[in-house]
Write a structure and sequence with these properties.
By secondary structure, the protein is of the alpha+beta class. It is built from 11 helices and 34 strands. The protein has 4 domains: 114 residues, no CATH class; 163 residues, Collagenase (Catalytic Domain); 85 residues, no CATH class; 144 residues, Trefoil (Acidic Fibroblast Growth Factor, subunit A) (Trefoil), CATH 2.80.10.50.
């Protein structure tokens, strides 16, 4: 469950960000942690700090947020550093809960505390730096330490291009025989309203568990990480949600220090061979992961490692998006070091979706930026700060010295200043203290300040990743959207109970319908379906057809039935992004008339299929 206060405006809007009321942060909060007299435990790194937090302090925070309050605390995470935080949201994770907070009235500075039984894990992002927290509530050994950073040479990149000519890749599962495992991590966070849900299977090594403080500690840390990633998705306007399908120890895997070797062990099998005959995974120690992935139907798979993070904090395949219309599950693999934090996970998973680094970094890596398509899939370094000139090597960095999640520090370094990583993906429709968060457009250019809009990439391509390992067809229970020939989406006003139009250019809950069908398997062309709204109304052709379509019915009967037909006349299964026509009970086709701009009423009076009767079916999710 999620608790929010009605007067708290945390979401980013197109013209900027609203902060917490000044009266809340003006108070003098008490420190949340106390210094552990024993200091940091032996397992902590040299820069770790030993702390304690009482169960009563955590429980008071939980109860106050649940009660609609905005409790304040002081995050004394390091020597001489303490940050005022206001906790404003509680998220249930299925195994515990996560508290979300804003630091110093600044939405770009965030705090996350994940409570999993007695284990507590946290991640704090500030202009002074970022920290992780891990340990046990009420006991010695709670450790706060800065997130690790990679030390890769300028010529290195964590984005691994997909190799050509590889054979022996893992087989995709047969969905008729592979069982679906029960969800061991509970339902997705209830605050999530994003249409595209991507399941991630996380494998962690013994080294990662040792560094984190044990299996329970790393699983609590993953709760925090996934929450941080989802907040970045939501605040950036990506329409995407990451769901932790499971976290699994690799008990017999001896982690090598070479990150590329780990990625190959994870992604390939003992049968995988390059075009020149090199075996990519000769020992096959992680071949079992592919079966686990199939059982969970995980869209992406990442491994958490614990060996020295240098020279890189993470590594992942970057999938090509040019002319891509089908999922590429064979390449949705990556790794993150356990000490590097959730924004590294967000960065690496972003590569699996197809996102690139910022344009400057990709040019430094030797790529022809103008040849990358689509041209807007880049992270972003604040170009307004570059134009204003260097503020120098000051800590904390200047407020306008920032980069988004997919961007590198390279351009900031080359211009003589530190830049802070903000927990957002590039999006030109958002502003960060007055400066745009990206660049809009589709121009193919080598310019450093060319199009940069990773949030748009998520919105337009997440449906491919979210169907990586799910049955690639329309099924009863699927959530879908219908896009008319005009480009507008069919909308049931207020989720039903009123009229239905087809002029929505920003699809959300009112444009999403659940398919009901008598077929236990995939829906085929010619099958009859019912379309249910988010408020449990059904789309209905009045009198069975010949007039308008509304969403005022509570029961699926004849007037609420529609026959779905593929427009290519090939018959067969209805699949995501198919072009379809819908026929009402009396045989008339649903259509959107040209002359009705801008209202775009949905009618059921078409006698034949033409442009006005043309709809594109977008499958948002399929049932498990």
């Amino acid at each position: 469950m999620t608790t929010r206060c009605a007067f708290l405006v945390f979401a980013l809007v197109t013209l900027g960000v609203a902060a917490l009321p000044a009266s809340i942060s003006a108070q003098s909060p008490a420190p949340l942690f106390t210094l552990d007299p024993a200091g940091a435990p032996d397992t902590a790194p040299p820069n770790g700090r030993g702390l304690r937090v009482s169960p009563d302090a955590i429980e008071r925070l939980r109860e106050r947020v649940l009660g609609g309050e905005l409790p304040a605390a002081l995050l004394n995470v390091d020597v001489g550093l303490a940050f005022p935080v206001v906790f404003h949201e509680l998220e249930s994770t299925g195994r515990g809960y996560v508290l979300h907070g804003m630091i110093d009235d600044d939405p770009f500075q965030t705090a996350t505390l994940a409570i999993h039984g007695e284990r507590v894990s946290g991640d704090f992002y500030t202009r002074q730096g970022s920290w992780s927290l891990s340990g046990t509530v009420g006991r010695p050994g709670l450790v706060s330490q800065p997130h690790a950073t990679g030390t890769a040479p300028r010529s290195d990149s964590d984005a691994v291009e997909i190799p050509e000519g590889v054979s022996g890749l893992p087989d995709l599962p047969d969905f008729a025989t592979v069982p679906i495992l029960n969800d061991s991590h509970g339902d997705r966070p209830t605050w999530v309203e994003s249409p595209y849900e991507v399941d991630i299977l996380v494998v962690y090594t013994r080294d990662a568990a040792r560094v984190a403080g044990g299996n329970e500690a790393i699983e609590a840390r993953l709760d925090s990480w996934v929450s941080v990633v989802n907040r970045a998705y939501r605040d950036s306007g990506t329409h995407t949600t990451l769901r932790l399908a499971d976290a699994v120890l690799a008990p017999a895997y001896n982690e090598p220090t070479d990150a590329v070797r780990v990625l190959e062990d994870l992604a390939y099998t003992s049968e995988s061979v390059t075009g020149d005959g090199r075996r990519l995974d000769p020992d096959g120690h992680l071949d079992w992961v592919h079966l686990a992935r199939a059982e969970h139907r995980a869209d992406v798979v990442h491994i958490i490692v614990g060996q020295n993070p240098a020279p890189t904090c993470g590594l992942a395949f970057v999938t090509p998006l040019h002319d891509r219309t089908d999922p590429l599950p064979q390449w949705s693999f990556g790794l993150t070091h356990v000490e590097c934090g959730p924004l590294t996970l967000a960065h690496e998973v972003g590569h699996n979706f197809g996102a690139r680094h910022d344009r400057y970094a990709d040019r430094v890596d030797g790529r022809k930026v103008r040849d990358i398509e689509p041209p807007f899939i880049f992270g972003y370094v604040n170009q307004e700060r570059i134009r204003r000139g260097s503020p120098g090597w000051v800590v904390p960095p200047a407020r306008d010295a920032w980069k988004t999640i997919l961007a590198y520090h390279t351009q900031c370094d080359d211009n003589g200043f530190y830049c802070n990583e903000i927990p957002f993906f590039s999006n030109p429709n958002l502003t960060h203290f007055g400066d745009p968060g990206g660049v809009a457009g589709e121009e193919r250019t080598d310019r450093i300040d060319g199009p940069s809009d990773v949030a748009r990439m998520f919105r337009e391509y997440s449906h491919l990743v979210s169907h990586n390992l799910r049955s690639n067809c329309l099924r009863s229970g699927s959530r879908v959207r219908l896009q008319a020939w005009t480009g507008g989406f069919v909308r049931a006003y207020h989720g039903g109970g009123e009229s239905v139009i087809a002029n929505s250019m920003s699809p959300g809950g009112q444009e999403t319908f659940v398919v009901e069908s008598d077929s236990p398997e995939c829906v085929e062309s010619g099958d009859t379906v019912f379309l249910r709204t988010s408020s449990q109304y059904y789309l209905r052709a009045a009198n069975g057809g010949g007039g308008v379509v509304d969403a005022t019915s509570r029961r699926p009967e004849e007037w609420e039935s529609f026959r779905v037909e593929r427009l290519d006349e090939s018959g067969g299964l209805i699949r995501p992004t198919d072009d379809v026509a819908l026929r009402a009970f009396d045989g008339s086709y649903l259509r959107v008339l040209y002359r009705e701009e801008p209202v775009r009423q949905l009618w059921a009076d078409g006698s034949q299929v033409g442009p006005w009767e043309h709809f594109t079916l977008h499958v948002v999710s399929v049932p498990r």
